[in-house]
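For anyone still unconvinced, we reproduce a single protein record, the chain in one-letter code, the fold tokenised, and leave readers to judge:
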Amino acid sequence: MKDYLYVINHYYGDRANCIFMRGLLSESNNFDIHLPLPKINDLLPKLSLSDFSKRQILNLDLIKSCFMNELDAKLSSMIVTASRGKTRILEEAIDDDTDDRDNSDLNVKMSFYNKVLEANPNIHFDLTKFNNDNSILSNIDNIIDHNRYEDVHSNDDILVKIMDKSKDEHSYIAKVNKPAIYMSLRKQIVIRLLKPNSVNVGDIKDSTLKKLALQNNKIKKTASNLLSYFELSSKIIDDDLVKFINNYEYELVFDKKLTIEFYEKFVINEEIENSQYKIVMEQYVGAAFSSKSVKNLPPEKIKILFETDCLKKDTDIISLLIDKDVEIDNTYINDDFKQVIIENKISLNKRLLLVALEEANNKSQQIFSRNLKVLTNDEVKDYLKKIDNESTRKILKIIHGDRGNFSFKIDDTEFNLNLFNWMKNKKMIENFEKVKDNKLKVTKKKPDIKN
């Protein structure tokens, strides 16, 4: 046995070389790429070029020795062989070479990574097999731009984490806009690396990635981007744009005017949050919208449109306010609005009437007298007290059944006539008559009717 080992060891160099050669000659799949070969210089001359095409040739010490000694033919053949296998030998060798270059003045101009590319330009690395992030970082542009890895999520995850260290937004956008790069990685860059509210729709070239950026709140919330995405989505306000507008985290910046075409689609969208709806409609400067165009909106949005002066002040709009029972603040019920009500003899619902009566001017009084039937007795009396003139004081005494009310003569005006008819219908008085000098007078008083 000793003689046999002596011969083997003498021939190949040592026991490690012997083990390596036995594995190579037996073509067994049971080999160790990490087998140390301390006397590799004794082994190399014994290996023919054809040996380097066998899978059993794969050994980390051997591949590094071929690289360091510039045995290019053997190294190239070994790289091609390694590319066909499932080992991590190439990734480990690149790791070691990266470490050597980081920690010393390595006297080899070309990196092992570039040697691999030279031997196999179509190499696909398994990035999970690298132990040193610097191995990827130092070659990251080449790896990404030429898709030198398998298109799987685990590799995307590694690349994104390494890219994140640079915090270079411009390089992220550049990668996103390279169509040759795997789409899966470009999507991950958009989702995980772009900062929220940081890019414009026009910064991204691919329409799918534009939409992805919008969905993930990466697009700046500006009027320009609203319009750009509106164009991209065939001029419809889709769910993604609604979500973008409704995002309270960022304030909408009006860096340009929104188009009439956009507003025509926006105004009828019921999914926009009311606060955002109001912000956008406050910027509207086009023609007022008709009742027909907004009739299907909920009351809250009709209120916003009315209060932002985006609706025509006509009978149809007033009818819509009544039908929808829209709550309008008195600030927006001006004399022009009241004049439309008066001229068209529009009967109001109680909500709108009470708002119109908050100010006791002549137009409000006229509207009051024409809509007495929707008010309670107390509400009528309270408003008469609010007006507080000679006629209303007399009418209040008639309502209360005060002594001497038969003698009251009140001007025959529309306002007073309507009140006399109301008192008669409420059976507060039996009847009234018109007397000389254009006056009205109670003919018989009934007992006061309580609410």
The two ends are 125 Å apart (CA to CA). Residues 198-276 form one domain.
